[in-house]
Each structure stands twice: as structure tokens, then as C-alpha cells.
Amino acid sequence: GIAVLRKEGPQVVFGPESPDGPDSPTVHQALKAVIERYEVTGVAIDEADLEDVMRAAYVHVGAV
């Protein structure tokens, strides 16, 4: 599922409840759910920075 990560005035930032979980929605599924549930006046999609993704993968592998 998706969750509200933060609110800044009228702007709301959504993200996956558990990014690594098996129920993590695709971008398409998440956007569809938000549009169906809220009145949307604009959309911006930010992708994770590659360095952050690599760092998270390295830390995750090191923890196993």
C-alpha cells in the first residue's frame, strides 16, 4: 500500500508503506490509488537517487 510521508500545506507526499515488501505498489498502481481517492491538481514523480539505491542495497546485503 501507500502512505502519506509528509504534508507541506496543500502538498502531500506519498510513498510505499514498505518499499521492500511484497505488497509494494508499482508507480502506476500508487498514482491510480491517489487519483481515485483525492482531488489532484498536480503531479510530480521523483525517482530515488541511484547513489541512495546502491547504498541501501549495500547496507541491506551487509546486514544479511
Which characteristics define this entry?
alpha+beta, two-stranded antiparallel ribbon, 2 helices, globular
Describe what this molecule looks like in 3D.
By secondary structure, this protein is α+β, with helices and mostly antiparallel strands. The protein has one domain (2-63). 39% of the residues lie in helices and 20% in strands. It is built from 2 helices and 2 strands, in the order E-E-H-H. It has helices spanning 27-37, 50-63, and strands at 2-8, 11-16. Strand 1 and strand 2 (11-16) form a beta hairpin. It is globular and about 40 Å long. The model has no long low-confidence stretch (mean pLDDT 81).
Concise synopsis of the structure shown:
The protein is of the alpha+beta class and about 60 residues long. It has helices at about 25-35, 50-64; strands at about 1-10, 10-15.
